């Protein structure tokens, strides 16, 4: 039976990860694989993948946090309720500070984005798990949704005056057309940078973690490798939160541009 990886071109034998003599493959952890069936079977093509599974688990964690956190509300909150309230207050304050009080109506959307990315990032730190936010297909869709939301809101709220976002009135008149072109290009590049920043950081961190874990197999350097894995894992916990925060705060910044294009 043909090798599904080589046949589909997801990761071929000529790639550096499969170089001769390499005992571990850091990029294999990012391969999208169906959960059931063998290559060539009908069920292989129609079953859900590991990406779908771990995204669904992230959604279940979000639902579980707020179902458990609000089922027995108390003046003195328990631990789960405390976490839910802290997350709620953190994002609510972020929207107020960055975007303004008139953007609070977008809180459910922004809050959902933050929690989904946060739990997807943290679940990916479980050994033998999968990181959906390391795939540009996932982060790109999230960023594109933000881009379309911001653009539609900008035109609906401001009409043609939303185009004032690209016209830099503080600059000399002679260079305003050039700046307008630059601003327009940077605006359409937003979903690319928004998505690549998240996917790139998660991919790099998990790849480095896998490399150090592979080095731990070598007896001569295993103590150093274990220390390296511990340090990088701690860093990845921090990165998991920071990247969810960065994606969310950029969403708030873009919403501010839509609501107040002439600020």
From TrEMBL:
Q: Which domain of life is it from?
A: Bacteria
Q: What is its main location?
A: membrane
Please give an example of a GO cellular component term from this record.
Answer: plasma membrane
CDD domains from the UniProt entry: ATP-synt_Fo_a_6 (cd00310)
Topological relation to the membrane, as annotated:
Multi-pass membrane protein
A Pfam family (short name) is ATP-synt_A
- According to the record, the segments passing through the membrane are 43-68, 107-126, 138-156, 162-186, 207-226, 232-255
Location comes to: Cell membrane; Membrane
Q: Which Gene3D superfamilies match?
A: ATP synthase, F0 complex, subunit A (1.20.120.220)
The record's InterPro entries line, in alphabetical order, gives: ATP_synth_F0_asu (IPR000568), ATP_synth_F0_asu_AS (IPR023011), ATP_synth_F0_asu_bact/mt (IPR045083), F0_ATP_A_sf (IPR035908)
> Keywords assigned by UniProt?
ATP synthesis, Cell membrane, CF(0), Hydrogen ion transport, Ion transport, Membrane, Transmembrane, Transmembrane helix, Transport
UniProt-listed SUPFAM superfamilies: F1F0 ATP synthase subunit A
Molecular function as annotated in GO: proton-transporting ATP synthase activity, rotational mechanism
Q: Which family does it belong to?
A: Belongs to the ATPase A chain family.
What does the UniProt record say this protein does?
Key component of the proton channel; it plays a direct role in the translocation of protons across the membrane.
Stated name of the protein:
ATP synthase subunit a
- Organism of provenance: Jannaschia rubra
């Amino acid at each position: 039976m043909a090798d599904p990886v080589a046949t589909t071109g997801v990761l071929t034998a000529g790639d550096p990860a499969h170089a001769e003599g390499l005992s571990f493959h850091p990029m294999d952890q990012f391969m999208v694989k169906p959960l059931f069936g063998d290559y060539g079977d009908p069920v292989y093509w129609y079953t859900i993948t590991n990406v779908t599974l771990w995204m669904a688990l992230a959604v279940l964690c979000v639902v579980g946090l707020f179902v458990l956190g609000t089922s027995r509300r108390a003046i003195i909150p328990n631990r789960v309720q405390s976490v839910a309230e802290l997350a709620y207050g953190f994002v609510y304050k972020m929207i107020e500070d960055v975007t303004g009080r008139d953007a609070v109506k977008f809180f459910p959307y922004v809050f959902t984005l933050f929690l989904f990315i946060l739990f997807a990032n943290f679940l990916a730190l479980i050994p033998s798990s999968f990181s959906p936010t390391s795939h540009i297909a996932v982060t790109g869709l999230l960023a594109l949704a933000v881009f379309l939301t911001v653009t539609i809101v900008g035109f609906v709220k401001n009409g043609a005056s939303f185009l004032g976002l690209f016209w830099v009135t503080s600059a000399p008149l002679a260079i305003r057309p050039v700046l307008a072109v630059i601003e327009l290009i940077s605006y359409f590049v937003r979903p690319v940078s928004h998505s690549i920043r998240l996917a790139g950081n998660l991919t790099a961190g998990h790849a480095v973690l896998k490399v150090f874990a592979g080095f731990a197999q070598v007896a001569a350097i295993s103590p150093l490798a274990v220390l390296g894995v511990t340090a990088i894992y701690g860093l990845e916990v921090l990165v998991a939160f920071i990247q969810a925060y960065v994606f969310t705060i950029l969403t708030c910044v873009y919403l501010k541009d839509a609501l107040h294009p002439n600020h």
